[in-house]
Amino acid sequence: MRFNRRNKAIWYALAAVGLWSTVATAFKVSLRYLSPEALLFYASWTSLAFFTLVIWKNREFGEVRSLARCHWKSVLLLGAINPFVYYLTLFHAYALLPAQEAQAINYSWGILLALLSAPILHQTLRRKDLLAGFLCYLGVLVIATRGDLLALQFHNVPGLLFALASTLLWALYWLFNTRLEAPALPLLFLNFLVGSLLLTLYLLLFQGGIEIPTVEGALGALYVGLFEMGVTFWLWLKAMQSAASTARIANLIYLSPFLSLIFIHYIAGERIYPSTLVALGLILGGLWVQNRRG
């Protein structure tokens, strides 16, 4: 097969999707050996090391300095959100919920992004955005009740709240990111620098120190840092830059949640609930309605 620009974009995107499909399992397995705070600490510093290497290779430290000097308030805010508060919230959700449920709820952030774009970015809220929101949060309700909608008996309210809070934080992060219009890699480097330092201070001041990981915990954190926060984003960015049509490449992300369920079942050992499949179908259906061309 000729390795032209289109094929290169597809392979980059498929590699990113494949790696992203493993991270829900990696979260759940790693949290058996580490607290959410410790997992984030080691993963975020791993990711920062990766971004440092990429910035050095691309000779972008000048852009990093310029961004930090001109937009230091935004850099501090975004770094506080991601990775510090967002991933801490997300990992607590995974610690409390089955991975299949936390993952499915996490996909609803795209709908919330569209709903929040109206008041924050002054964009028009379309009817299909409202329909997409209805489908998406109906899916969240199916997850929360495990299919028993009439009883409205929630199985894990704290886990549900952590999962929903993580979608709000991630949507806000990308909205503020859009307003800043900064280059992606320098901004991510600064985000992880700020977030990692804030997390370290938080652990030292309020958690009594930094947890020493087991070998299994350290390997899990290394994997999460590289393949959730680091390498995978770089692969996706390369796919977007190489693609003739970013919309076609972006649609490949819909493979990820279904591939993820395979890893969750066979590696994390979870029995996949029928309600998860229904809910995931509703959430992805909502995303399809939101993104289809009018």
Descriptive overview:
With 294 residues, the chain is mostly helical. The chain has one domain (5-291). The chain is 78% helix and 0% strand. The chain is built from 14 helices and no strands. The chain has helices at residues 5-30, 36-58, 61-70, 72-96, 99-106, 109-121, 127-145, 157-180, 184-206, 215-227, 231-242, 246-250, 256-266, 274-291. The radius of gyration is 19 Å and the shape is globular. The model has no long low-confidence stretch (mean pLDDT 88).
What fraction of the residues are assigned to beta strands by DSSP? under 5%
Largest sheet: none
Number of helices: 14
Q: How many domains is the backbone divided into?
A: 1
Describe the global form. globular
Distance between the termini: 35 Å
Mean pLDDT: 88
Sheet/helix structural class: mainly alpha
Uncertain ranges: none
Give the fraction of residues assigned to helices.
Answer: over 70%
Number of strands: 0
Q: What sequence of helices (H) and strands (E) makes up the elements?
A: HHHHHHHHHHHHHH
Please compute the radius of gyration using only Cα atoms: 19 Å
